[in-house]
Design a protein that fits this description.
Elements (H helix, E strand, L loop, with lengths): L25 H4 L8 H13 L5 E3 L2 H8 L3 H13 L3 E4 L2 E4 L34 H22 L1
Antiparallel strand pairs: 1-3, 2-3
Length: 154
């Protein structure tokens, strides 16, 4: 790999000033990212970047939402997905990026499995817990649905 051309030699990557920040290549090699949506991976990247030597960090939900440009509901979904994938632990308000060593073998690709899994049950927040944009989108969808229903009943 050292023979590959360097597209921009003036911006070579160096060691970070905080020696605890790194992305473990097993995240890709062992297939962990196959099970995560892009919002979850963005949250994971932030948590890796800000964690201390034990992978511990503390950020308020509002700060993370602002950084990632997502709403509270999307943050909770991303956090839940990372916890279920055993990539992080969360005990409000602390996050811990987990060691991938304990997960040396990746779980099989779900598309190659012959076993049927029960569908994931989602829990939805109350509308009052959603940000303004999400509330407005939900109201617009309900109004459109109501209008379609009204037309079908005529």
């Amino acid at each position: 790999m050292s023979d590959l051309p360097i597209p921009d030699p003036s911006h070579l990557r160096g060691r970070p000033s905080q020696p605890f920040t790194w992305i473990d290549p097993r995240l890709i090699r062992n297939g962990h990212i196959r099970h995560c949506q892009s919002g979850s991976l963005a949250l994971y990247l932030v948590l890796v970047a800000v964690g201390n030597r034990h992978g511990i960090s503390y950020y308020k939900d509002g700060s993370l939402c602002g950084m990632l440009k997502i709403g509270n509901f999307q943050l909770r979904q991303a956090r839940r997905e990372l916890v279920e994938a055993q990539l992080i632990a969360y005990h409000k308000p602390n996050y811990q990026v987990l060691d991938l060593q304990a997960q040396a073998t990746a779980s099989p690709d779900p598309s190659s499995s012959h076993q049927k899994k029960a569908p994931k049950q989602e829990s939805f927040p109350h509308i009052s817990e959603c940000d303004d944009a999400t509330q407005q989108a939900a109201v617009a969808q309900l109004q459109a649905f109501r209008e379609r229903l009204r037309r079908n009943l005529q």
